[in-house]
Fold these 2 entries.
Entry 1:
Amino acid sequence: MKLKTIVTTVAVCCGAAASAQSVDAKYLAYPSYSGEDLELTVNSKGTHWRLWSPGAEAARVMLYSTDRNTPATDTLEMQRSTNGTWIASVPRQLYGSFYTFSVKDNGKWLKETPGVWAKAVGTNGERAAIIDFATTDPEGWASDRGPEIAHINDAVIYEMHHRDFSQHPSSGIVHKGKFLALTEPSTTNPEGEATGVDHLKELGVTHIHILPSYDYNSVDEANLPSNQYNWGYDPFNYNAPEGSYSTDPADPAARVTEMKEMIKNLHDNGIGVIMDVVYNHTADNDDSNFSLTAPGYYYRHREDGTYSDASGCGNETASERQQMRDFIINSVKYWAKEYHIDGFRFDLMAIHDIETMNQVAAALKEINPSIFVYGEGWTAGDSPLPADQRALKENVAKMPQIAVFSDDIRDAIKGHYSNAADRGFATGKPGQEETVKIGIVGATAHPQVDYSKGNNSKFPYAAAPTQIINYVSCHDDLMLTDKLRKSMPDATDAERQRAARLAQTIVMTSQGTPFMFAGEELFRDKQGVHNSYNSPDSINAIDWNLKHQNAEQFAYYKELIKLRKEHPAFRMTTAEDVSKHLKFDNVKEPNLISYSLTGHANGDSWKEIKLVFNGSDEVREVKIPKGDWTIIAEDGRINASGMGTTRGGKLSVAPRSALILALTK
Ligand code: CA
């Protein structure tokens, strides 16, 4: 998320302006509570609530028989308890009921809230629901496991939105735009080619990264036939799934069960699930669940007491405060344990502090060593949090188990993200070579890479290539096809497809973890819309007929992913190995990079792999040492098993293409 999804005017926090310092001092004095019984517990003795609200003058629980539009059936006054919490109980298991909290602050009862720890909710997340989670597990859930991977860079990540992926009539999927879309086997487009989960398997990606799937604010779950679309970067209930992706938002168990069924089916097919999490801000300010339970506490403020706004969405959360830090850590732990999530992508991660992110990664690795964490190593605006404490890209070496997106390789390959006409290495703009090389070595220190010539970063910020996510486009900004159309206005789509293949070849063969945006393998577009967060399906939905029309493009991507997965040389795990085994050749022409992965790098069966990238629109000649080379990629074609041989010497590299050769023994 980079651009605003919700525009909120700056509001004064808590009704009274106070200096940031006095605000901080007030919250530092709050006790914290990290017990697992926060907000709701149901056990043999009944139903129990424990709300953390240290500043409250009083607190209540309201009980309801339905999820909305009905009066409370009962109101319970809560009692003060330990560590800033308030408790109430009833001696019965109230499964099937709904509840909200309200706290009294400055003599006034605040609006009702489902709390910050609602794990099940009704329509639009207005009321929390009391359900028996044991009944939400699909068959075989106890033994469900995601793919085991030794290192994050063994993953090939596919970023998708539920609605993009299945909404188009050509998907052949019944549960369009729903979690259940990813449970349907043998779905096809009108030409009989695989869509849905079968498509993912055919493509060979290891993990899907789903855009926000917690309960967000913007889509009216009471009015789903209106077909609203939103990316979901406007968090409401962090610990419950989004209702519009379920078949019945009014049934609190449906969204839980259906999301689990989706994950189970993906796991059964060997595919992991990464959640996009947005703890950095909330959709509302004073009306957020955070503000309505502990006014002000969860947010950072400016000197004048107003909400600071490093998210560009009206507020930013305060991960350095104990209860907020615990909230983030316990929330991801909950998703990992209850939903078997395999990875987390942190939106605007640099709004969080380094210590929190390190604790997040450590807590998740303890649950499952295969879980990985990556994020956007930047903010969308300035923050009161000092830069040296922010989980910035530049600070990633201080977060050994975290990876960050490489905007270096992204912009160097295709051109600047916000300047539509700007070109990059793969589309013929000279001078990008050194920045592409920064991506190729996974932003680690390398004797042949001159970081002073980097466009964005000026030093090797990653301690290991496992700290870098390489990509050329994602949901933000112009996606690759649209970027190529805008920056190569006089080219044909065939020529642009060659550029796309070259761009993805650089990404998929670079050291680090490759990441791609859903549908790029079909050369989909979004009709030039760069910020499609609430655009209609006609912009966002993937037209699966493209799989037929652009069959060669798909075949190339599939083979490229296969090549990466078969060869550990592309997946080195230490900076030392990259330094030792990755050797650039001395080529002088613009838009030309040539390098080798040598000495059976990272235990590869191949002795040496030679990669030459020509981003120009001219044929380039390179000198390849004599040897029994197998041709893996040439002139816009690729075959991981080889397609002929060459003895080396002076070889031509076609315009906008990759030449990949291998000494297979
Ligand atoms: Ca929602």
Entry 2:
Amino acid sequence: MKYNVFKTKKEASKAAYETFKQYLKPNSVLGLATGGTPTDFYKEIIADYNLGNTSYKNNVTFNLDEYVGISYDHPESYHKFMDTNLFDHIDIDRKNINIPDASSEHLAEEIKKYQNKLNNKTINIQLLGVGSNGHIGFNEPGTFFNVGVHVVDLNEETIEANSRFFNNDKNLVPKQAVTMGIADIMKSEVIILLAFGENKKEAIKSLFDENEPTVDIPCTILKNHPNVYVFVDEEADYNK
Ligand code: PGA
């Protein structure tokens, strides 16, 4: 695991983008994340794209997760997030974008479909955030490492953390999500994990301690992955 500390989220995101670009190929399959963490990273993608340095015409993307129970158009849906923060600003071909359709009435079928699509591709570069409880994607503590795409009940800490996007009202936060499983995440060739802020420090620390991976802190499975880059700001630096 390569550990990189920068003063700010902005600087760390810039450095993470440089690493991403080293691996990026015109036809790379990209695993993408949402939330407060990757916003500056996506700004770096857009800025470089606007300079004419990159094209995403032939890239395929898979998002980690989507809330159950809110529509595509909801301002906090992850579909909307991706359009606003990235896809509307680059030349990605819409048919190459994959995000779980968690508003489907046939959720079980949708999950199977998403799993099949993932099984037929290899994610070359996976971008990850991490929850303060160590979740990756929405794989909450206790999730087995061998599971694929599934519906998850969000735990209290996650609902509390994400209420900041829902007028600070926990009741407005969806209670379930569809997420890629840890097995899917672990199959990606390169993982770039970003973490910013004091509340991520414990999760980051767990990546570098002497303990074996534990389902109680899902991100610890990344110790078993051969190519992980971690970018943090000073507040999330576990050495401090
Ligand atoms: P955040 O969430 O980026 O909104 O902090 C990260 C995560 O829960 O994976």
